[in-house]
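Hey,

Quick one before I head out. I ran the complex with iron/sulfur cluster overnight. Inputs first:
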Amino acid sequence: MLPFARKLEYLGYPDLKAESVNILQVNLGWRCNQACKHCHLLAGPQRPEQMTKDTIDEIIEVVRRWSIPTVDLTGGAPELNPHYEYLVERLDQEGTHILTRCNLTILLEPGKEHLPEFFRDHRVELVCSLPYYQEDPVDRLRGAGVFQKSLEALRRLNRLGYGESPDLRLNLMYNPAGAFLPPAEGPLEEVFRRELLGRHQIRFHRLFTLLNMPIGRFKEFLKRSKIYERYMRMLVSGFNPATLAGLMCRSLLSVAWDGRLFDCDFNQALDLPLSTGLPQTIGEFDLDALGRRPIRLGDHCYGCTAGLGSSCGGKLAEG
Ligand code: SF4
Ligand code: SF4
């Protein structure tokens, strides 16, 4: 397999560089109430990693000082961090757009029932994982009973206006239930809308598609099933140069639970730090250097450029 960086070189594309830091994606910890088969992080209930309040205060200071427009909170289940509410309240005071990647079932956990109202009060945009509109594929990927719990969580959010009101954005995140590329986003969104509304009276704004990255627990599954090489070949042969302009690492910077900086959550999962010579922790943040940094690439990057492309905000190219 031609290494990803060599492929770009070979095709005549210049070094990939960031163009801005419009989004700070903050990973609040790897603890999660679920342990999904496709998780790129190996997150789960026993993971001890959690961001401390000192690191959270450093993030708030960076957002304030450099006027970062959007903070995207992820995990694990970000809401399991004991300082989640504190962070959201402080970011809201700064006028920052706040986004949370919510696995839905967390809203039904004891002690977390207040979260839907909390999200609403702070106008938190939600991106909620729902890999399919049917029970079986969801429960196979995410655990028994997850589909029904997800529906219950979505109903609670809908009752507060999420999925309908323009300032209570509720987006869903699809990922394939196996080793294949996501289908076209638009038609799939229509099927999700029809099925979820028709069968369960559930409303949402947008559906994003995300490819299963060949790392973490999904890589273990590919290896166990002896299809890792085949999956990688599919990603390599699906390389689409039209995705390069929109790669999320060009406008996003990822902050790990321990305050280290990465080009994206996937590089964080692989412990692939920023290029040498750049600030490496949130305490050293410098927008001038980080906003035009060279991106640290690896073969997993083929996962972002295959087909119509893939990112935390969905597809990257038209088609
Ligand atoms: S995929 Fe999301 S919900 Fe599932 S274990 Fe990983 S972090 Fe948790
Ligand atoms: S995995 Fe994707 S987002 Fe991360 S550095 Fe590679 S191309 Fe960029």
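The pocket of iron/sulfur cluster (ligand 2) is lined by residues 247-249, 263-264, 266-267, 295, 297, 300-301, 304 (CB under 6 Å).

Talk tomorrow,
K.
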